[in-house]
Amino acid sequence: MTKENKIKVGISIGDLNGIGPEIILKTFEDPRSLELCTPVLFASSRIMNFFKKHFSSKIHFHEINSVSQIKPGKVNVLNVWKEPVNIQFGQEDKKIGEYAIKSLEAAVASLKENTTDILVTAPINKSNIQSDKFNFPGHTDYLNQELEGNSLMFMVSEDLRVGLLTDHVPVKDVANHITEDLIQNKIATVSKSLKEDFAIPKPKIAVLAINPHAGDNGVIGNEDDTVLKPTLKKLRHDGNLVYGPYSADSFFGSSSYQNFDAIIASYHDQGLIPFKTITFGTGVNFTAGLNKVRTSPDHGTAYEIAGKGIADESSFKRAVFTGIEIFRRRTEYAHYSKNPLKKMSR
After folding, report:
1. CB of 315 closer than 8 Å to CB of 281
2. How far is the C-alpha of 229 from the C-alpha of 207, rounded, in Å?
3. What percentage of the chain's residues is helix, strand, coil (to nearest 5)?
4. Are strands 293-297 and 7-12 parallel, antiparallel or unpaired?
């Protein structure tokens, strides 16, 4: 791959008082990372040089003021702002939240204009980003508005993939959100992603129950019997390899997840607690279902260790590599779907 053809990875800086800048520096100060992609950090050269000095990083930046100046084989820093920013590691700060959104909006604009190929987002603080102009519970909902398709939070690692029927929804509201249409749409999104993004032609999917013990025949709720089971039965009748609902309490401990290409959990913690327990540090948050590829690490801002130089960049690095892999597979899938005879001649 030539320098000019390398995948351009747009990176939103996240919460500047958290560990995002540190794990970005650690990921790209290894020159081997530049053999795979051309990173573009949406922030400011002033602030990135501050972090470089603070963490004694040997990274070399290429400062730019426009996406037209992106230089292949360099760690590009695009100046989204130029004024100084007061950094107080580990502190929640509304002003810092504003810079996180400035970075995100610029990175998404570049993605939509195809001047970058994929987006990797550093962690944000969901509280300090809220404003009259930005009223979203997180990245996924914002991207769902800005990009084409229907977003789905898809936590992925080498051996485990977990999607969600509902994501940032209060537990008391989960059952009311889960409808036949929602189940069908989410399963269709996961199935399509497994085929196009992970090269799995006939995906096998497990679905976890809404209630403990799948409701125990209505003793602990009837949503599994009245909504989930009949919808899954209908999907199987249509030829989908979709199974469940499985009782969530024993599903992961018994290693049943290893028999499936993906698992769909009914709500956030039902899926993310076992995922992070099994994969922490190697997991990636991938936003499936959209026309563009976005990934992020499987952790938050980690204020308690911010600025100390001890943050582990493994998940962020994996997010970059996973985004690149998905972009390549998706591109290849689209190419061979249009030219099926070429696949046969490979």
Report:
1. yes
2. 10
3. 45, 20, 35
4. unpaired
